[in-house]
Protein: ABC transporter substrate-binding protein
Organism: Paenibacillus wynnii
Amino acid sequence: MGIKRKPKKMVLMLLALIMTLSTAACSSGNGDKNNEGKANNGKTANATTEPTKAPPSADEPGWMSDTSPITFDWYLNFAWFPNKWGVDPTSKYITKKTGVDINFIVPAGNENEKLNTLIASGKLPDFITLGWYEDAVKKMIEGDLVLPLNKLADEYDPYFFKVSDPDKIGWYTQPDGNIYGYPNASSSPADYEKYGDTYVSNQTFVVRKDMYEAIGSPDMRTPEGFLNALKLAKEKFPDINGQPIIPLGLHEFTATGNDSLEQYIQNFLAIPRQKDGKLYQREADPEYIAWMKTLRQANQDGLLAKDIFIDKRPQMEEKIAQGRYFAMLYQRSDFAAQLGTLYQQDPNKIYIAVDGPANTKMDAPTLNGPAISGWTVTLISKDVKDKARAIKFLSYLNSEEGNKDLYLGEKGVSYDTIDGKDQFKPEVFDLMNKDRSAFDKQIGSSFTFWMLMNTNITAQWTPKSVEPFKQLEDWTRGKTQSISEFDQIDPMANSPEGIILAKTKELRSKVLPKALMAPSDAEFDKIWTEYLNKQKELGFDKVLAFQQTKYEENKKKLGM
């Protein structure tokens, strides 16, 4: 059940072209040599002519041609990444199989500072993985700091094209005709045709099950019901194990804004991203403003704890593990480990997904599903110590074989063929659900190393979700949408439009907490009106015009 690749003709033509060019190059190059060395009756005059090296095959995994030991430095632009390669049996198995060892480099503090320092130095580690949305991707490409994957594949490993999706190659191909980064967790429109009904979203509104039931499982879709539920929870459960309750949890406030107060709540309110082909300014929408005023009222009523304005993810994880939040508008995967721990302690004190904020028509949420851009992209540095081994290892990780090795691990160790299906051994699956951190170190499979994970490929081995995770996933089914055409529409940070966008985000980061802390709706209106006017003064219309052009280009790319 491999990934669907469309159009198939394109792949076959591409592979045929590669093979033809390779053969032609060898024939033409060798022809001159052979003619020079031939004399009477076609016999070779010079017996010392070197044998020609066979071109790399487009049909066979390139990594198998060389499994000698090599260590690559791999930079991950995620300070929270806790794992090391070679500690667990899965990564040890892959190193034994391919010869490739990995030294992960992870920033200790601010990711952007670390990455910008590396870029400024002009010398990068062998591999780099970062969010596709990071400005640094364009900086590295424009600074000639990374190599075109297509050219590496042409020269060393045409198998890359066989295991890569042409739609995703097309999406990430730059104006110069090259592709420099390949995505993980990416789903194209063609993937949606095949797998769409199985897709789930990370975006959830959750409540602590025991508290929610204790206050009568109220409807929280309306502003009145939402505020009343927070109030009842605080009155009935003022303290959690000696610590004050936090009625509502949000994503952290950052230097650019707050995910919960932007796209999350906008998606729950089903606010459109475009109207009649024109990008829509969602934060000026009346439904959105009405709910922001609801949160302002929550703060006035003492229902927004000061913690939420200052806590970062580590502090939030600690408080989630303590069960101190009543409700959260939050990404479910970000608290999966804590949820598993809570479930082991008491299945009633877990977080469950419920219908949260809704628009006045009570439309279903329009949550972000998988998109063609994926989550991260992986690039190969111009300073890579071995170009051939690098592209071959990337092809391996990107292939069905590599995805299976990283997802299931080594047969007999973490998985077996049980009831005719390759699946995790029961004790391994049990550990994964009980203690994810321990699982990563003791097993190391199931996306512990996610740099090139293809969730459409691994779906064939994915075990059925178990509680408490299943309920959250199931709640999102049927509510997800592809947002591919809205990805990658922002300008470069150092462009005129990019500078305006950066100033707007900085302004937003200051306005959001200020608006929630406003003493009255009238004061909120004043703050929000000033904010939208200030956007215009900064020249935000230029940003919108830039984004509109990119959006229309994306639609053409996707054949929409």
Summary: The radius of gyration is 27 Å. The CA atoms of residues 223 and 291 lie 7 Å apart. The first strand starts at residue 38 and ends at 39.
